Amino acid sequence: MNNIVAIVGRPNVGKSTLFNRLIQRREAIVDSVSGVTRDRNYGKSEWNGKEFSVIDTGGYVRGSDDVFEGEIRKQVELAIDEADVIIFVVDVEEGITPMDETVAKLLRKVTKPVLLAVNKVDNAMREKDAVEFYNLGLGEYFTFASISGSGTGDLLDALIEAFPDKPEVEVKEDLPRFAVVGRPNAGKSSFINALIGKDRYIVTDIAGTTRDAIDTKFDRFGFEFNLVDTAGIRRKAKVKEDLEFYSVMRSVRAIEHADICILVIDATRGFEGQDQSIFWLAEKNRKGVVILVNKWDLVEKDTMSTRDYEEKIKKELMPFTDVPILFVSALTKQRLLKALEATVQVFENRKQRIPTSKFNEYMLKVIEAYPPPATKGKYVKIKYCMQLPTEVPQFVFFANMPQYVKEPYKRYLENKIRENWDFSGVPIDVYIREK
Ligand code: GDP
Predict the structure, then answer these.
(1) Considering the entire predicted model, what is its pTM?
(2) What residue's CA is closest to ligand 1, atom 25?
(3) Which helix H or strand E contains 91, and what residues bound it?
(4) Choosing a second label site near 432 at 20 to 30 A (CA), which of 13, 23, 143, 206?
């Protein structure tokens, strides 16, 4: 499981530039293989072969000066809860501001590693100026310039060094790991309670790879599975997380740790921005997804049919629309077994391996019926294809001129795969390679 790094600091100190710098390094690698989209606040990075996730906690706070202390406090608390290591960015040009002091005060109490990173240090003079940041009481600092990237190497070395020791091998359990995610008040806890019962059918408690992610094993309706619980979820305790950003970021660890995300949405509110962000977070991490439209008991059935509702959601899911959507009620316990069955099915779908001969037999016919369109008079030939032996479904098609196979055709191939095999709820990758 990845370490999570949070970048904190007041607005305009260069958090986003640093964030982008960390993410781009990684995206450059990822992008060449798949078409992963970028997220403003969350992404993956790597240094010296170690992959980690980065959260830019300032991503939400737009504009600048009129940021209230409360907002910054929330930002830092989020980082403290969710991250393994915190990077606190300050600006040498401005020196120590009252808001920096506020942040430092919060961070001094934290037991997690904090790296103080002084930005905009691009000459010897400023290197000297940086000394004043010892006054923040956070010990040694790192100087860098996020625009040019100078100094980031040392910062990254220290970052990797600061990661807590985690057992390299994960608990090898073949049980599916489900995470129940969604906006506050969508009914996540109600759903879990309705499904599991107050007495909680706990078989064993398995500590996950970190102190923050706990897998609890359940046995319900004949299915065995682990529910992923995280500090962020457990914390819940009526914290008012009105801002979209906070509840999305609270889901990061659970989503990364799970195989399948059960996304609970509130039927009376629809599939809103926050739900979408969580959906794309799961998709981006190549996790299976099931959408539960909860509180269906509250919806006037005359005004809205499940079909209409489903269509509306699917419009928002484009192009990844092959996702199970179920209409449930945690209150009346309507269709809870169905929801669990659908989730287990998505888990099975994600695990399935199509034998190469069967895959070729079907796909080569499909390709023959509708070959890649000729580009600049060139005819692309695909002679062979297979599913890769990867953890999540990936398919490769070998072609004489892969560069001429464009996105729409890849989507055509993906759709055909989905038509013939059940990959409902599962993101899949299609690659075209030189044969
Ligand atoms: P969470 O923040 O996502 O865990 O949401 P909760 O489980 O705490 O539920 C938020 C509120 O919605 C509570 O008042 C629940 O009683 C209510 N609620 C949850 N599920 C349903 C449902 O299916 N139908 C109705 N009518 N209310 C629900």
Answers:
(1) 0.79
(2) 295
(3) strand 85-91
(4) 23
